[in-house]
Automatic annotation (TrEMBL):
It is found in: Cell membrane. CDD domains: MFS_MefA_like. GO terms for cellular component: plasma membrane. Its main location: membrane. This is MFS transporter. Pfam families: MFS_3. Signal peptide: none annotated. It is a multi-pass membrane protein. Keywords: Cell membrane, Membrane, Transmembrane, Transmembrane helix, Transport. The chain crosses the membrane at residues 18-42, 48-69, 165-193, 225-242, 262-280, 292-309, 378-398.
Amino acid sequence: MASFGALGRALSHRDARLFFSASLTAWTGLWVHRIAVSWLAWEMTGSAFWVGMVAFCDLAPAVVFSPIAGAVADRMDRVKLTMFSQAAIAAQAAMVAALLAAGQLSIGILLALEVLSGIAASFSQPARQSLMPGLVPRADLPAAVACNSLCFNVARFIGPAIAGPLIAVGGVVPAIMLNALAYLIATFTMPLLRVEAAQRRGHAPEASVWAEAIAGFRYAGRHPGIGPLLGFAAIAAVLMRGVQEILPPFVERIFLRGPDGLAMLTACIGIGALFSGLWVANRGRVEGTTRLAIGAVGVQAIATIGFVATGWFPFALLCAAVMGGAGSVHGISTQTLVQNAADPAMRGRVLSLWGLITRACPALGALALGALGEVFGLRLPTILAMLLALLVLGWGLYRLPGMRQVLEDRRDPPPSAR
């Protein structure tokens, strides 16, 4: 493993290998599921709005539940919380598949079940990510955070590669059942982790869950580095991530393709994310990460403009790979900085805010883009959103020096941020 640099050092630890193997399994199932339900919604309705609603119902529960989940992850056993939430995701997938096989699944029921899955995922995300400092030494944490994102993006490549042929041959039901199986496997590996008690649980309860959730918002908002960085990431996610959440309408309306085209585009996003993730993981250092987190948004915005402006599918695949690569650099860099700068007692709550951003903001963007796409077409709203993202990039570059000093040097924030 040592020959693979920082990434190899992170994976040289037994618990890290077990954790990331389970993550890769679960997230592969997740991407198969996402492709399957988005295509199912498109087949059921033929509407970009309803495809956006499916993504919205899966991701939007994070708005309400992520802050609560972060507080819960800071006060209970994070391994057990991860197990319970992953088992709930497996049960939801099995229910969708069973109802669809029985011919009893309507778009309304699908939306309701996706909400349940979104609630469970809101609890799983901060619990799992808060365990990472207990899996590797602190010096290997940046590489471990990068490896976590890398697993997600490898799954984003593998999942669509499985989903496309599986849906074409067997339909949507086997694809969704595969997700249920994947999350069951991930659930049963959690007790095998040997995590120190101090890392399994943040602190003894000090107040109500609501009070601790509010304290997490207050801490992040007052932190001179975490607050601006998460605000920047949230606005960028609303403007840019909606495209990736409602790909089926783009595939059929702009490129005149079916499930194979959807799988190819999603796989290209995953390939770009994979290679950029490998690069970030092997950097193995925090220095320069803030600039990466900010600059990647500009690259992603320009690539997205190229994606929607062309009608030539091979060029769209190239743009999709760049979109995936830039998004991966931004996500890994932001999460690394947050993990590096956050107080350990606040880690679960701060990471839950990152989870809120990565789930709720794309959901909002997908809903808005789907609705506008029904009226104005897909190209114009997307290009306008990317131009706004470039304006946000300018604000991020202006704030870059101050954020970099606090986030990368890990100096204690002023008392107002505590």
